[in-house]
Amino acid sequence: MVRSSTRSNQFVSVATVRPRASKGAVGLRDAAEMLGVHYMTVYRYVRTGRLDATLVGDVWSVQRSTIQEFERIRARPSAPQTTRPRGVGDHAKFVSRLQKRMLAGDEVGAWQVIESAMASGSTPSDVYLKLLTPALVEIGERWHDGTLTIADEHIASAVAGRLIGRLGPRFATRGHRRATVILGSAPGDRHAFPTAILADLLRGQGFHAIDLGPDTPEAMFARTIHNATKLCAVAISASTKESAAQVRSVVAAVRGTGFDGMVAAGGSAIDSRLAARRRGADDWANDGAGLIALVETAAGRSGARAVNAVTSTW
User: Is the pTM higher than 0.70?
Assistant: First the structure.
């Protein structure tokens, strides 16, 4: 289509051209015919990350070579049936699919990958620890080494944030809360995902988790401790060198409230128990499972004590 307009007595012709798929690529209907399946089957393959495709304008296109490779993989004999639980050993393929959908800014497709993983036996905790976290770590590493742009990283992070929001309610438990856990990132650390994920994991274990989010001032930790009941754990996360240097002041603020329980620190910038203790913390957790173990121990030690119990940090 050609539009004409006049501006400053000049005639301007503007051609509106529909984006075209790259040479050697076909649309989903042609791909379905090549694979001998229904169009919607190919569409599901694309949206769940099983078949690589590119969105050109509002049309999906798939390289012929990709279709041929997909067909070769599909034609391979199935592995012998075993008694292995469903979902075990399958996480790597889901991580790859999830990462592709996140980088494409495709929240719907990313959620379909997660639903497929859970239908295959993965729990919501597995999704966090074995799918989403590895996908985010790899995306961060690829940005750091220059194979992804900052725009790519932001697009994927935006999708990750919405996925966390959808997963959160699946960790809700009924009944009496065992104890309270306070989590927050050290001042200067703008990463919100670590404590958000950890808070959900703790809620799934029956704890009341208060997530203070990224870049939490020392005073906010102190104020929250004063207002908490049945406090058994405080999680301090540091993902950068600069924020790790602030952990000591956070621990001091926590101690200044009169809290006499255990304080631990963790995150990608604190890589050992020794590193945590050098910053004034009592202990360290290197992942979600480690933090849960610390909190379980802290809750056991605190017993029926109310506000000032044991504090563990991630």
Answer: yes
